[in-house]
TrEMBL record:
<dbReference type="GO" id="GO:0005524">
    <property type="term" value="F:ATP binding"/>
</dbReference>
<feature type="binding site">
    <location>
        <position position="181"/>
    </location>
    <ligand>
        <name>ATP</name>
    </ligand>
</feature>
<comment type="pathway">
    <text>Carbohydrate metabolism; D-ribose degradation; D-ribose 5-phosphate from beta-D-ribopyranose: step 2/2.</text>
</comment>
<dbReference type="GO" id="GO:0046872">
    <property type="term" value="F:metal ion binding"/>
</dbReference>
<dbReference type="InterPro" id="IPR011611">
    <property type="entry name" value="PfkB_dom"/>
</dbReference>
<dbReference type="InterPro" id="IPR011877">
    <property type="entry name" value="Ribokinase"/>
</dbReference>
<feature type="binding site">
    <location>
        <position position="249"/>
    </location>
    <ligand>
        <name>substrate</name>
    </ligand>
</feature>
<comment type="subunit">
    <text>Homodimer.</text>
</comment>
<feature type="active site" description="Proton acceptor">
    <location>
        <position position="249"/>
    </location>
</feature>
<feature type="binding site">
    <location>
        <position position="245"/>
    </location>
    <ligand>
        <name>K(+)</name>
    </ligand>
</feature>
<feature type="binding site">
    <location>
        <position position="137"/>
    </location>
    <ligand>
        <name>substrate</name>
    </ligand>
</feature>
<feature type="binding site">
    <location>
        <position position="279"/>
    </location>
    <ligand>
        <name>K(+)</name>
    </ligand>
</feature>
<feature type="binding site">
    <location>
        <begin position="9"/>
        <end position="11"/>
    </location>
    <ligand>
        <name>substrate</name>
    </ligand>
</feature>
<keyword id="KW-0119">Carbohydrate metabolism</keyword>
<feature type="binding site">
    <location>
        <position position="243"/>
    </location>
    <ligand>
        <name>K(+)</name>
    </ligand>
</feature>
<keyword id="KW-0963">Cytoplasm</keyword>
<keyword id="KW-0418">Kinase</keyword>
Amino acid sequence: MITVFGSINMDLIATTDRLPKPGETVAGNGFATAAGGKGANQALAARRAGCVVHMVGAVGRDEFAAPALMLLDQAGIRLAGVKHVDGPTGTALILVGGDGENMIAVVPGANGTIAAEDADAAIGAMSKGDTLMLQFEVPAPAVERALAAAKVKGVTTVLNLAPLIADAPRLGRLADIVIANETEFERLAGQDNMNPADRETALRRLHGETGQTLIVTLGADGVIAIRDGVLTRAKGLKIEPVDTVGAGDTFCGYFAASLDEGLDFEASLRRAAVAGSLACLKAGAQPSIPLSADVANKI
């Protein structure tokens, strides 16, 4: 079983021919809304991969609450751990350029009300061997409490270091498995502008210090990881991306689900990388998450 302790948002998405430079206004050519939030996205990905998933988070009492939960509910994710609080549901303002790249600003809303007692409640319902997935779109003290409580209970923790926050290097060391993109990993390692050789050296160094499983997603170049002293690489698919906004969360959810289902580490990485590639072929974070059968057909 997987419990996701994280954010639930509505995404407000504008498309443009290209992303604006600082201080520049560009013309948009489309607008849509879609359910999102890194926690909710990863929960849906894990569920579509085939796992039993519990979501722990918060939405507001506003017009965005119901649509933000709709796809999770339809997928059969257990939502008893989602609280409804006064004020707005979290929102993400997303610009997507013609090449599929994006710029995102996140307004926490109800996600900002997640507290230590919510972490205690989430872990209290879990058992040894379960998996807890976390990100940084809810307050860092709550994430820290959840990581600590999970360790005491023997729950495996998978922490995605996104969005990048000041506490990421410290809190990153508390998880069993850490997933980061290239920029996030540089912050974790304390080194900027890494080349591939630098990245491998840093992975070996950090793994030697902490014993953690460390995974770095590399976009079109796939993923590199270290576990039990062994470096492993996996490739996704060669695609022409439409929208990359859901790729990272899809990778995280599919990876955690694959391990939970008993796949070996290398197979889990490959399955997650393929799923992340497929998520780039449609617009929107949650609508783009592929079903398990679609991923299996591409592996």
